[in-house]
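ZP: hey, is the glutamine complex queued? I don't see it on the tracker
AM: it wasn't, my bad. submitting now with these inputs:
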Amino acid sequence: MPTDLTIQATRNAIAEGRTTAAAQAEQCFARIKKEDAEIGAFLTLSEERARAQAERIDKMAASGEPLPPLAGVPIAIKDVMVTRGLRTTAGSKILENFVPPYDCTAVARLEAAGAVVLGKLNCDEFAMGSSTENSAYHPVRNPRDKTRVPGGSSGGSAAAVAAGMAIATLGSDTGGSIRQPASFCGVVGLKPTYGRVSRFGLIAFASSLDHIGPFANTVKDAALVLREIAGRDPMDSTSAEVPVPDYVAELEKPVDEHSGQLSAGVPAREAPARRMRVGVAKEYFGSGLDPEVRAAVETAIQKLAELGCEIVPVSLPHTEYAIPAYYIVATAEASANLARYDGVRYGLRARGARTLAEMYRETRDAGFGMEVKRRIMLGTYALSAGYYDAYYLKAQKVRTLLTRDFDDAFKTVDVIATPTAPTAAFKLGEKLDDPLAMYLADIYTVTANLAGIPGISVPCGETREGLPIGLQFLGRHFDEATLLRVAHAFEQARN
Ligand code: GLN
């Protein structure tokens, strides 16, 4: 077990010579070897790479050099981010033996900041799913109750943190895949604004909806990781040229006093001090919301009021169209992105085919799982001539309406508080035969991906059975700082 499961405690202990980066990594590997046979969070370990990095950090510490912000912090990476020389599968058989020639920018930035990469984490195939049962390798079990799913698609990333096998992890979120598993496993998960973190080296599912973000035990740790991975990257033209604030410093600001200007996205220094405004939208508390989850989220909102936040009702009238719009846009983009797995460029190639077309067909038939095939078919259909206007174009229009809903709401509030998921973690196998029921697990998270706004899930309570419940905060574009600040204040008050 690592000394303490926070980034700063680990870094300080290494800086003060109370432990070494090597010892921290070894403790994590020992724990993984002991516990992960049952949990299934890891697909590949990178022991050599971890040892080399730990040695580098320990040399720096021994010579008294100033240590980088994540020095010696053991982390792990969802297997949809490419890692140089380290097998990357995207949870798919089609990439079973794929060893990428370069590193994902987010991973490279974490290593540059001193983090030690332990390995690659299990996930739904190509990040398609809400339970990690669509992994082509094996499912992941929720460390809080091993008969239940950890959520998905970043189930391995959430479970690794919850089980103490890594201090922080990276996941990806296309429709909720960071926030929903964070909620199911009782950890913090953050999806930044679209464009905040480079997607270079993220294996694409739906490019206009995909995001990379951190999982951690505390909001502060999520802020520390975001600070390193955020910011413009010349390798991703959609990464934004927006300055990255010091998220950690922002955390300490009080929530009963806020100088942000409400009508514009940019905080005005001169605006008169007022209380932080937290919006509550009835559309996120409708039928389908489990009563225990509702009660926990309502108690959390009460707590925010006690902390000095002003609770303001807001309306997001197009919310009910989010799931259908998401499953059109996501599958359409996926059908285009997955065309590249043709048996020629990467990974698997079917043997024995007599023609090129046969080779494509057989490779894709053998390499892709059921859910991936379903999405390719749905997406191809939605984009086909004659149906494009009826489905894809319509979905894009809905997307604009959803974005406008948020723009309007953020004229009167700073953040919006919602449940992260309609239920706590469900049983393995429970929704496997019912894709529509599975899709509804993302009902409160897909809206942020469609609008590109940031969202965070923080633990806010437990069911009677002891299953974690998550509280989600949504914020303005590029205003992760406010999101983190409210989430941190809530977390402090709860502990
Ligand atoms: N569960 C959603 C889906 O299956 C979201 C997945 C994700 O965010 N990667 O598409």
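AM: back. Residues 104 and 201 are 4 Å apart (CA to CA).
ZP: great, adding it to the tracker
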